[in-house]
Amino acid sequence: MPLIVICGYPCSGKTRRAEELKAYFEQNGDKKVYIVGEGGLDVDRNTVYADSQKEKDVRSSLKAEVERKINKDDVVILDSLNYIKGYRYELFCLVKHAQTPHCLVSIHDASSLKYPHLSQKFCPSSAPAAGVLSDVRTWAEMLQSGTTRTCEHVSFGAQFCPVVLFCSFDALVLRFEAPDSRNRWDSPLFTILQDDTLPYEDISDALFKRKAPPPNQSTQSQPLSSANFLYELDKITQDVLMVIFNAQKTSVPGDLILVPGATENFHIQFNRSVNMAELRKLRRQFISYTKMHPTENTGHVSNMFVQYLNKSLH
Hints:
Strands 2-3-1-4-5 form a five-stranded parallel sheet, sandwiched between helices. The chain is elongated. It is built from eleven helices and seven strands. It is an alpha/beta fold. The chain has two domains: 3-114 and 167-218, Rossmann fold (3-Layer(aba) Sandwich); 228-313, no CATH class.
């Protein structure tokens, strides 16, 4: 399913935008929409982002959940900070492996920088009481002025979404690697400001009317080969090396060296003496290539190796 990667500062409105995208796709098609985020992992954000190892574990869990759900039919929305460029590249490789399009939605909300540790957004089920909001703003101003660094004595009430503490926010902002549309893993990029309306149609076109990125060798599954293919490959190439090394003792330049297992049209053209170190190096290169491109018929290995040697030795 196409993947929508949402990124942005903490408390910038990422979850709200993810819910808006989910509602749009559910109302305008028969696509299933899945939101993958930290909320489904039942973790405390302040604890996670204060510990690099815990944060790494959470990122791994989110990526694994995306990998389980992704296919070519429905939509997956990854609702998280996604502030690391290398992590976004890993998601791009995952998309290439699944052969499905993706896009990046970057959320910019200036109000999150004013009160970084407070979402300033409220759960849609209810609105906060005026007194509670005033207390929280007072606490936010105290945090910014350095008067207090904790929220132990502040009651937020059930109306508020989870908050991110001031100290964690500063560190996350400093580590944030802004997306760049010139990078293929950040393209297509949609930048959304606080009061902007989501470009639903453009996002939909990017997901469903655009070709998926072509898979490359690193994201393709290796073809199946016989259980003893590597053993046969190792044995055949070693036998060819020994035949060539021994034949050099009685051959003169211009002779053809017959190789066991090779057909009549495949012979080693002896033009110069080759030491065993060079032969072993060529053998290792050939084995590495053949592992990535295995042949179903091991009877062709001798011919392939002879052809490879003739081209490499001249």
